[in-house]
Design goal:
Number of helices: 20
Number of domains: 4
Strand content: 15-25%
Helix content: 25-40%
Radius of gyration: 31 Å
Number of strands: 25
Shape: elongated
Oligomer: single chain
CATH superfamily of the largest domain: EF-hand
Distance between the termini: 17 Å
Largest sheet: 6 strands, antiparallel
């Protein structure tokens, strides 16, 4: 219940704009300005209790408390490491980022790319921080995390060994913005060890809120060099790497000094005339700050002698700084994949370049309700969350001359790195895209069922289902309306996700979800004279002399009836369910049921029994929780995925099955809640106001 309340509170914050670029979330409720002022007033240096200078912040396994790799580690402030520490000295540059003993070259390659755009850098590294004026041992950084921007506070105690920084450091040793940035990111991910291993695109996305594409260089698209140039001009972040075939190849250096299994930044793409022929060149940077390509177009190679002096002076910077040029042909031959992070419109403030249109949704897969698995599982597939995108306008300049609408779909699962400490793996995720049938076009208050999704093929799909943080693909489809179905590969897997859509032209997107509503009109009153005489006789036998049925008598008769049936399973009606029934059906507030009230109840239970048996597809005597949405709809209650999940949490058993007494108890409770809400919502606004006493009384009731 508290987690559900937390999700509701979080959604309310998002509705108020908290988590946007303009109003970042205070990570772990720590406010930088407040904490800094407190330290200045007290004359002390900040110590971060949320990410302490100790073993827990280093790691859990290879960097755990008993690991040899953490022996001799001492946490020191920059003021203890050098006489004149600088946060940023003469601008942040790529040479400020040298890798330490942590396997996070993917992150450092992304940080290096940040320095190419000072505007993006200032977004991640807020300006005005230093070790001089107002220094209090506290710094802050901002990251995009699963759909929202967070402001992360850290103290400046850094892990060292023998007086040297253990992890990322600057080449000069006196500049500390990159080391503190790494620490802040480690805090977000849980610890330093959680940063080991990854793709550069993850860092790209968390520094920009952008969406990333991956290109396999074994078969690159024909226009890839032009795509690289345009991406760099748009301020996109680019990274590349060489895949390894075994763990022994990790960070192995080739004959031409390229490092396998290592993340490089792509920092430039130019064309020059070499002996009368136009040659395409790509500039890369090794985040180690050293070990450079020694093939054609490397620093000082003979190729530079045969280009004009203007190009040579502009491009050929010779230094052992980890940055180098190589031909585009060698690039696609030597490297395995290229990663491009496309930026959101709010990160591209210039009107001189084109912008993507950006749409974002959060969702959950939950066992028993919305974790339906992929199309291979037809019984549950339609239970997955659903989103619709409407594409009206075709691209301006299609490369192949055919009209179509280009858009990117990115599906990202949350908190993978933080869960490493708990030994939890990422789920295998992907998505399918279906054309919305004509009868549902323009509607958003529907949830497409198996009758729609299973009778047609997907018009597009993610390239693969894979256990990675994000799956992203580019599509071009004819104008129309399409349903995106994100899922895990197997059903019954819990995870939270963010679904993002980037479109070249303006699009219309929204969740596909039923409106919450109910047909709660009271049953038509039947004259007592029309009640079957045999029913009257049975009622008198049950009720006794007072001619009313108490909760104890009600539970006894209900259990007596259902215990004789072989087509349904039940643990028996409880007193709690009996009291709910009487609360709903008791009109004269006697806390008992008279003849006509009992007759209405009996009619209702017969109706619910018919619905229950219809939706018990396997004749097991129970209903799968995935079938609860359809059963509730037939009973007159339209519920969305959030309400369905609450029902599953409350009424399903350990195997996510719902027996008959739970089914009846659920529908009685839902009907009572609808009636209570509508009675209080006099203005029919869809909202009610309650004070604490009213809330407690209604909740207990």
């Amino acid at each position: 219940m508290t987690s559900a309340a937390g999700r509701l509170a979080h959604q309310q914050e998002r509705n108020r704009g908290i988590g946007t670029k303009q109003h970042a979330v205070k990570f772990q409720q720590q406010d930088y300005d407040t904490l800094r002022c407190q330290c200045v007033e007290r004359g002390c240096l900040f110590e971060d209790d949320c990410f302490p200078a100790g073993c827990k912040s280093l790691g859990y396994n290879e960097l755990g408390p008993y690991s040899t790799k953490t022996r001799g580690v001492v946490w020191k402030r920059p003021t203890e490491l050098c006489s004149n520490p600088m946060f940023i000295n003469d601008g942040a540059t790529r040479t400020d980022i040298c890798q330490g003993s942590l396997g996070d070259c993917w992150l450092l390659a992304a940080i290096a790319s940040l320095t190419l755009d000072q505007r993006i850098l200032a977004r991640v590294v807020p300006p005005g921080q230093s070790f001089s004026e107002g220094y209090a041992g506290i710094f802050h950084f901002q990251f995009w995390q699963f759909g929202e921007w967070v402001d992360v506070v850290v103290d400046d105690r850094l892990p060292t060994r023998d007086g040297n920084l253990l992890f990322v450091h600057s080449a000069e040793g006196s500049e500390f913005w990159s080391a503190l940035l790494e620490k802040a990111y480690a805090k977000v991910c849980g610890c330093y060890e959680s940063l080991s291993g990854g793709n550069t695109i993850e860092g790209f996305e968390d520094f920009t809120g952008g969406i990333a594409e991956i290109y396999t260089l074994e078969k690159p698209p024909s226009q890839l060099f032009q795509i690289i140039q345009r991406a760099l001009k748009l301020g996109s972040l680019l990274g590349c790497s060489i895949d390894i075939t075994s763990p022994y190849e990790t960070e192995a250096v080739t004959n031409l000094k390229l490092v396998k299994g290592h993340a490089y930044s792509v920092t430039g793409a130019e064309q020059v005339y070499f002996r009368g022929t136009l040659v395409s060149l790509v500039r890369l940077r090794n985040p180690w700050g050293k070990v450079e390509w020694t093939g054609p177009w490397s620093d000082g190679s003979m190729e530079w002698k045969y280009i004009n002096e203007e190009d040579k002076s502009k491009l050929n910077h010779v230094a052992e700084d980890g940055e180098f040029w190589m031909s585009y042909l060698d690039f696609v031959r030597e490297f395995t994949k290229l990663e491009i992070c496309n930026l959101t419109p709010d990160m591209l403030e210039s009107d001189d370049i084109g912008h993507w249109n950006y749409y974002q949704f959060e969702g959950m897969w939950r066992v028993g309700s919305t974790a339906g698995g992929c199309r291979n599982h037809p019984a549950t597939f339609s239970s997955n969350p659903q989103f619709v995108v409407r594409l009206d306008d075709v691209d301006d300049d299609p490369l192949d001359g055919e009209d179509g609408c280009t858009f990117l779909v990115g599906l990202m699962q949350k908190d993978g790195r933080r869960q490493r400490r708990l030994d939890r793996d990422l789920q295998t995720i992907g998505f399918a895209i279906y054309e919305v049938p004509d009868e549902y076009k323009g509607r958003r208050n529907v949830h497409l069922g198996p009758d729609v999704l299973l009778r047609q093929k997907a018009v597009a799909m993610s390239n693969t289902f894979i256990n990675t943080r994000e799956v992203c693909n580019r599509f071009r489809l004819p104008p129309g309306e399409y349903a995106i179905i994100p899922s895990t590969f197997y059903p019954h897997k819990n995870a939270s996700f963010v679904l993002r859509v980037f479109s070249e032209k303006q699009a219309s997107t929204s969740p596909l979800e039923e409106d919450i509503d109910a047909e709660t009109e009271d049953q038509e009153d039947l004259p007592e004279s029309d009640v079957d005489p045999h029913f009257k006789y049975l009622f008198k036998q049950i009720a006794g002399r007072d001619t009313e049925v108490s909760v104890f008598e009600l539970v006894k008769i209900l259990n007596n009836v259902v215990s004789r049936r072989t087509d349904i399973k039940t643990d028996g009606f409880s007193l709690e369910t009996g009291r709910l029934i009487i609360s709903l059906m008791d009109r004269d507030e006697s806390s008992m049921l008279g003849l006509m009230e009992f007759h209405k109840l009996w009619t209702k239970i017969q109706k619910y029994l018919e619905i229950f048996r219809k939706h018990d597809q396997d004749n097991s005597g129970t209903m799968s929780s995935h079938e609860m949405r359809g059963a509730a709809t037939e009973a007159g209650f339209h519920i969305n995925s959030t309400v369905l999940q609450a029902i599953v949490d409350r009424y399903a058993d350990a195997h996510y099955a719902i027996d008959f007494d739970s089914f009846v108890g659920c529908l009685i409770k839902v009907e009572m809640l609808f009636k209570m809400f509508k009675a209080l919502d006099k203005a029919k606004s869809g909202k009610i106001d309650l004070d604490l006493q009213q809330w407690l009384c209604l909740a207990i009731y």
